[in-house]
Amino acid sequence: NLQESESENKLDGETASDSESKSEFGGSPPVPTSDDTPEVLNRALSNLSSRWKNWWVRGILTLAMITFFFIIIYLGPMVLMTIVMCVQIKCFHEIITIGYNVYHSYDLPWFRTLSWYFLLCVNYFFYGETVTDYFFTLVQREEPLRILSKYHRFISFALYLTGFCMFVLSLVKKHYRLQFYMFGWTHVTLLIVVTQSHLIIHNLFEGMIWFIVPISCVICNDIMAYMFGFFFGRTPLIKLSPKKTWEGFIGGFFATVLFGWLLSYVMSGYRCFTCPVEFNNDTNSFTVDCEPSELFQLQEYNIPLVLQSVVGWKTVRMYPFQIHSIALSTFASLIGPFGGFFASGFKRAFKIKDFANTIPGHGGIMDRFDCQYLMATFVNVYIASFIRGPNPSKLIQQFLTLRPDQQLHIFNMLKAHLVDKGMLGSLEDA
C-alpha cells in the first residue's frame, strides 16, 4: 500500500519536498467539488449518465459562449477591449485566490491588497503605452494627457516602487520565505495574464481579423478535440490531462486547419474585419475603413503538379491571408494545447479540478482562456516578424508634433535622400 501511494504521488508530480512544504504553506487549497450546473439542466438531463450529461452541459454552455462572442464582435472594438479587460481581471482573480487560500492561513498582511495594487500598476503602464501609441494626436491635443504621456514611464515606475516598498514593510518574521513565494506568485500571474491580454489588444488594432481568427481557431480546436476524443478517443495523450487522447489531438488539428482556412476566406472579403482599427480625431471614435492591403486581395496561385491530377485544377484563387491562417491554425492545434497542459499541471500541483466554477461544465474563465493567452503571444510575434511594416500615418503624426526647425531639418534630410535615389526628379517631371 505504501508503494502504491508513493507511485500515485509521483503521477501527480508531488515529491517529498512538496509534502514537507505543506506545513509551511498551510496545506492544499480547498477543492471546488460542488455541482454548479443550473437546476433546469439538472432536471432536463437527470435520466442521462454522468458522461452524457457532462457532454450536453458542455455543449449547451459552449453554444451560449459562442453566441456571446458573436454579439461582442458585432458591438465593435471598444466593447471587445472592455471584454478583454474584464476577462483579464477575472483570470487574475482566480489565480490569486488560489494563492490566497494558502497564504491566508497565517493571516499575514497586505497580500491581496498588494496583488491588486500591482495589477493596477501594470495595467496603468501597458494601457498608457497603448494610448500614447494609438491615440497620439488626441494625447497631444489635451494638456493633461500630454503631461501624463511625457512622464508616463516615470509615473509607472514610481507606482511600482511604492508597492515594492509596501511589500518590504509587510514582511513578518518567520514567514519571509512564504511571503517571497507569494510575491513571485503575483508577478508570474501578472506576466501570464496582464502582459498577454495587452498583446490581444495590440492584435485587435492590427485588424479585427487578427483578433477573431486566432481566437476562433483555439475555440474550434478545443471543441473538435473534445468531440473526436469523446467519440473515438482510445489512446491517452499526456498524463497531465488523462482525458486527452491522440485521436482528439489529431482530429482537432485537421478540423482546425480546415476551419481557419474557410473562416479566413469569408472574413478577408470584408473591410470591417481586415482594416486596422484606428482612432478618428475628428469624430473621436474608432474607424475600420481603408483600402485592403495585398493580404486581403484575391490572387491566383498555381497548384502543385502532384495535386493537379487529384483536384483537376491548375490554379486556385485565394487570399494571401489564408496561407497565414494555416500557420495560425497549426499553432492553435499543435502548440496551443500546451497552454492547457500547463494549466492542468498547475491545477494538479494544488489538487484542484478547476480554477473556479464560473461556467458550469467548463470551470473558471481561466480554464477557457489558458490556451488563448499563449496564442495571443504567437500572433503578436507573427505579425511583428512577417506582416507589420512601418506605419506612415503614425510617422506623420509624430512629425507634426516636432518644432518647426526640427521639421525643416527632417524635410531637408528626406529631400536629399530622394535626390540621391533619383526619385525626386521623376516626381517633379510627373
UniProtKB/TrEMBL annotation:
Entry's transmembrane regions: 110-127, 154-172, 179-201, 207-233, 245-263, 321-343
Biased composition (Basic and acidic residues): 7-23
Pfam families: CTP_transf_1
Disordered: annotated segments: 1-38
Gene Ontology terms: biological process: CDP-diacylglycerol biosynthetic process
Membrane topology per record: Multi-pass membrane protein
CC per GO annotation: endoplasmic reticulum membrane
Pathway(s) annotated for this protein in UniProt: Phospholipid metabolism; CDP-diacylglycerol biosynthesis; CDP-diacylglycerol from sn-glycerol 3-phosphate: step 3/3; Lipid metabolism
Catalytic reaction equation(s): 1-octadecanoyl-2-(5Z,8Z,11Z,14Z-eicosatetraenoyl)-sn-glycero-3-phosphate + CTP + H(+) = 1-octadecanoyl-2-(5Z,8Z,11Z,14Z-eicosatetraenoyl)-sn-glycero-3-cytidine-5'-diphosphate + diphosphate; 1-octadecanoyl-2-(9Z,12Z-octadecadienoyl)-sn-glycero-3-phosphate + CTP + H(+) = 1-octadecanoyl-2-(9Z,12Z-octadecadienoyl)-sn-glycero-3-cytidine-5'-diphosphate + diphosphate; 1-octadecanoyl-2-(9Z-octadecenoyl)-sn-glycero-3-phosphate + CTP + H(+) = 1-octadecanoyl-2-(9Z-octadecenoyl)-sn-glycero-3-cytidine-5'-diphosphate + diphosphate; a 1,2-diacyl-sn-glycero-3-phosphate + CTP + H(+) = a CDP-1,2-diacyl-sn-glycerol + diphosphate
Keywords: Lipid biosynthesis, Lipid metabolism, Membrane, Nucleotidyltransferase, Phospholipid biosynthesis, Phospholipid metabolism, Transferase, Transmembrane, Transmembrane helix
EC numbers, comma separated: 2.7.7.41
Signal sequence interval, chain numbering: none
PROSITE patterns hit by this protein: CDS (PS01315)
Main subcellular location of this protein, as a coarse class: membrane
Cell compartments where the protein resides: Membrane
Molecular-function GO terms, alphabetical: phosphatidate cytidylyltransferase activity
Stated family: Belongs to the CDS family.
Protein name per Swiss-Prot or TrEMBL: Phosphatidate cytidylyltransferase
Species of provenance: Bucorvus abyssinicus
